[in-house]
Design brief:
single chain; 187 residues
């Protein structure tokens, strides 16, 4: 990523989290980044592609940090709990850092829901952990992709709510739901 792209993504991040996706224009992003509108269109075909690239770059940073933080955890079931806990902590920190309101977060989640490629980053690590659990004899022989989709869908239903709750309350509720799902695939 070159310095121009970084300026554009930084500006887009600030504006999307401050005003929301719909209320942020490409003109405003260009002005905030200190580049011409044409420069943005040289890098991205439209605002949706820019948003998707921003989401992917944020997801990559989160994924890399989570992978570093859980690298010492060897049990697959523990890795799943740790992975989801650390992802939630990082997203909560980003929300706090940005000052985004619940309405803006709701809108950004809705936009993300339409950009299915953002799901890919979650899929890789969790599927790897599920496969590891089968190899370790912790989990039954399962359809790993379907199990991932189920976990991802259920967790996704609560994510927005959890971003605005106390961390300890979230952890208790999230772990209760996740434990029920993981217990269902244990040997």
């Amino acid at each position: 990523m070159n310095s121009t792209e970084l300026k554009i993504l930084t500006a887009a991040h600030q504006l999307f989290f401050r005003f929301g996706f719909k209320k942020t224009s490409v003109d405003e992003i260009a002005a905030e980044a200190g580049v011409g509108k044409g420069t943005i269109y040289n890098h991205y075909s439209n605002k949706e592609e820019l948003f998707m690239k921003l989401g992917e770059s944020m997801q990559t940073l989160v994924k890399e940090q989570v992978e570093r933080e859980i690298s010492h955890v060897t049990q697959a079931d523990e890795r799943i709990f740790e992975r989801i806990d650390r992802e939630m902590k990082l997203f909560s920190a980003k929300k706090l850092e940005s000052g985004a309101t619940p309405a803006i977060m709701q809108e950004l989640f809705e936009v993300c829901g339409h950009l299915k490629s953002l799901q890919k980053y979650n899929e890789i690590g969790l599927i790897r952990d599920l496969e590891l659990g089968v190899e370790q004899g912790i989990f039954k022989k399962i359809d790993v992709e379907q199990t991932f989709k189920s976990i991802y869908t259920v967790m996704g239903q609560f994510m927005l709510k959890w971003l605005f709750m106390d961390y300890e309350e979230v952890k208790l509720e999230r772990n209760s739901i996740l434990k029920m799902m993981i217990d269902g695939i244990r040997v």
